[in-house]
Amino acid sequence: MIRVVAAKLARAAAVVLAAYSASFFLLFVLPGDAVLARIGTTDTLGSADVAGLDLDLLRDEVGLSDSLWTQYANGVTGLLRGDLGRSLVTEEPVTRLLAEVLPNTVTLAAVSLAASVPLGFLLAVLAVTPRSRAVRSLASLVPSAYVSLPVFWVGVLFVYLFSTTLGWFPSNGSRGAASLVLPAAVLALLGAAQFAQVLISGLRTELGTTYAAVTAPAKGAGRFHILYRHCLRNASFPFLAVFGLRIGQLLGGTVVVEVVFSRVGLGRLMVDSVKAVDLTVVLGLVVVLAAAYVVVNALVDIGYALLDPRLRRRATTTEARA
Q1: What is the separation, in whole angstroms, between the first and last Cα of the chain?
Q2: What is residue 195's three-state secondary structure?
Q3: d(Cα 233, Cα 311) in Å, to the nearest integer?
Q4: Please, which residues have CB within 8 angstroms of residue 231's CB and are 6 or more apart in sequence?
Q5: In the Cβ-directed half-sphere of 37, how many Cα atoms lie within 13 Å?
Q6: CB contact at 8 A, 200 and 127
Q7: Do the beta carbons of residue 15 and residue 290 sit within 8 Å?
Q8: Cα 94 to Cα 76: distance, rounded to the nearest angstrom
Q9: d(CA 269, CA 285)
Q10: Exposure string over 288-300, b if 16+ CB within 10 A, otherwise e
Q11: What is the distance, to the nearest Å, from the Cα of residue 159 to the centroid of all Cα atoms in its chain?
Q12: pTM recorded for the entire structure
């Protein structure tokens, strides 16, 4: 057991380090100057004559005058100590900047997931269970139609309808439960549509098997019993994979929603940091998102083992051989 856990931890650390390394070298070959961006975003120096400034001295102060490999070594050393460095623009610790915006993103992701999972299962069941062909067709069409819509367009539509026209919810901000409703609804509907598409395909495949179509009905099992007792478990395997990817998307890919609804979060911080050439903040975000993906993948593996006893037996056999 200790060997298995150690191997998984080693792979997780390798993934995070690989993501950090790739992002580091890609960012440093892109055009842009963090020092010039810092001057342009500082009130006291915004109108100063850049030509009269000692840019080399400013670069030396933030460590950008060192060689590329020295900067990389310093970054990896800090990463091993849990120190993500300081912002090149504001000089604030990166961990503090992340701690300020992470709760907003996590809350938004959690609320949208809590709503999207049951809604996705409901749409999938409605697409394969009712005798009415119209209900099945509608439940199958809605997810495909919603996935094809641009997220920003849906967000703007929600703002116009529920905020500007009806005045039910605020159109922007990150404070209070009311400001969470519209962005969470946009993301929840998108997640539900993605989950429903995968589940519908899986359930149709399972319902078409010999046991579900012939053997179980011959034994007197009803359609709902067959669906929930025999088909739903097997159809949930691809759902788990999409669920894990969806969590990663919500943590790092909510940029459009955060911009439309003027919310503070990881996605918006990423965009602002890239625009300001704030390399340390971008790298800190990469580390956090890579670690999140690693954790989510581990949870998905656990979910697979819970759904399929064969995987548990295989893991036990592998551990015994080790």
Answers
A1: 9
A2: helix
A3: 14
A4: 203, 206, 207, 212
A5: 18
A6: yes
A7: yes
A8: 15
A9: 9
A10: bbbebbbebbeeb
A11: 23
A12: 0.73
31 CB-contact burial (10 Å; exposed 0-12 / middle 13-18 / buried 19+): exposed
Query: Do residues 273 and 282 touch, judged by C-beta distance below 8 A?
Result: yes
pLDDT mean across residues, the chain: 75
CATH of domain 98-320: 1.10.3720.10
| Residue 44 pLDDT level (bands cut at 50, 70, 90) | very low
Q: Which two tokens stand for residue 309?
A: 């006893």
How many CB atoms are closer than 10 A to CB 271?
Answer: 14
The count of C-alpha atoms lying within 13 angstroms of the C-alpha of 152, restricted to the half-sphere facing its C-beta, is 7
Q: Report in angstroms the alpha-carbon separations of 156 from 8, 79, 257, 259.
A: 43, 39, 9, 11
Domain extents for the chain?
Answer: 98-320
Q: Is residue 316 pLDDT above 70, yes or no?
A: no
CB-based contact 244:297 (threshold 8 Å): yes
- Between CA 286 and CA 271 the distance in angstroms is 12
- Helix/strand/coil for 85: coil
Tell me, what's the pLDDT at 41? 46
What are the residues facing 86 on neighbouring strands?
A: 93
Output the six-digit token pair for 161: 């309808």
Question: Which tens digits make up the pLDDT trace of 199-252?
Answer: 888 777 776 666 666 666 666 666 666 677 667 777 777 777 788 778 877 776
